[in-house]
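hiii so um. not sure if this is the right channel but i have a protein structure encoded as C-alpha cells and i wanna go backwards to a sequence. like what aa goes where. can anyone help
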C-alpha cells in the first residue's frame, strides 16, 4: 500500500492512488490534470521517505472532478448589555480531486505522454558550382547591355513676379479748430458814490456800523494815573496817585 502526505492551500492531506480528496479551491477547470509539488512524505511497501521539509523532485498527479461550495455556516456575534448582534453566513469554496499517480524523484508518469520532438528537416543541397558560375556571368552581361535609365530633366522654378507694393491710404489731417471766443468777465460793480447815485436809507441801514474812536487826549485824562514803584524782595506794589 502506497500513500503520500501533500500540502496545498495551507493544509496537509493524506492521499492514495485511485481515491478522491477535497482540498481548498484550485485555479483549474473540471477534467484538467494538476500537479501537487509540495510532497512531505511518501510511503511505498514499507519504504518511507521523509522530506526536509519537502521531497525534491517528487510530485502527485490528480484530476479535477468538480469545483463547488460547501454548505452555509452561520456566524452569530453577540455582546450582552450592549445590544450588539451581528449575523453573517459563509460558504467555503473547494475542489474535489482524484489522485492518479504518486511519483518519486526521477520517476516518469505512465498516463501522461511526452511531447514528441520534431526532427529538423535537412537543408536542400546546394546546386553544382558550374551552373551557378554560368548564371552569374549571364546576369553580368545582361546588366552591361541594358541601356542606362534616362533621367528626367530637373524642373526649375519660374521666377516669381514681384508683387506690387500695397497702396497706402492718404493720411487724414485734422481740420484746424476755430478759435473759441474768450469768455466775457462780469462787469465789476462800482460803489454808489462813484456812480453818482445817492445812497438810500435802506443801504445805510444795511451797512455795518463802526464804533467811533475817541481821541487820545480824552482817554488819557479819564484813565487814572498809575505809577509803578520799585519791587522789594520779589513783591510788587502799586500806588494810585491823586
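sure thing!! here u go:
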Amino acid at each position: 500500500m502506497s500513500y503520500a502526505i501533500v500540502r496545498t492551500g495551507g493544509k496537509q492531506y493524506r492521499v492514495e492512488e485511485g481515491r478522491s480528496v477535497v482540498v481548498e479551491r484550485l485555479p483549474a477547470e473540471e477534467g484538467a490534470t494538476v500537479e501537487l509539488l509540495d510532497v512531505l512524505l511518501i510511503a511505498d511497501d514499507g519504504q518511507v521517505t521523509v522530506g526536509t521539509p519537502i521531497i525534491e523532485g517528487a510530485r502527485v498527479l490528480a484530476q479535477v472532478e468538480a469545483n463547488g461550495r460547501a454548505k452555509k455556516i452561520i456566524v452569530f456575534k453577540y455582546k450582552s448589555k450592549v445590544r450588539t448582534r451581528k449575523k453573517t453566513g459563509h460558504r467555503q469554496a473547494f475542489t474535489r480531486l482524484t489522485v492518479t499517480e504518486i511519483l518519486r524523484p526521477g520517476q516518469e508518469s505512465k498516463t501522461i505522454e511526452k511531447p514528441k520532438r520534431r526532427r529538423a528537416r535537412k537543408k536542400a543541397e546546394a546546386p553544382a558550382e558550374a551552373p551557378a558560375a554560368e548564371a552569374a556571368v549571364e546576369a553580368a552581361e545582361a546588366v552591361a547591355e541594358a541601356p542606362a535609365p534616362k533621367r528626367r530633366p530637373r524642373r526649375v522654378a519660374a521666377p516669381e513676379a514681384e508683387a506690387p507694393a500695397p497702396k497706402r491710404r492718404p493720411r487724414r489731417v485734422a481740420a484746424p479748430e476755430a478759435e473759441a471766443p474768450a469768455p466775457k468777465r462780469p462787469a465789476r460793480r462800482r460803489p454808489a458814490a462813484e456812480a453818482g447815485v445817492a445812497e438810500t436809507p435802506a443801504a445805510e441801514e444795511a451797512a455795518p456800523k463802526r464804533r467811533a474812536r475817541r481821541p487820545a487826549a480824552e482817554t488819557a485824562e479819564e484813565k487814572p494815573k498809575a505809577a509803578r514803584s520799585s519791587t522789594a524782595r520779589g513783591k510788587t506794589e502799586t500806588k494810585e496817585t491823586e
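oh and The first strand starts at residue 2 and ends at 8.
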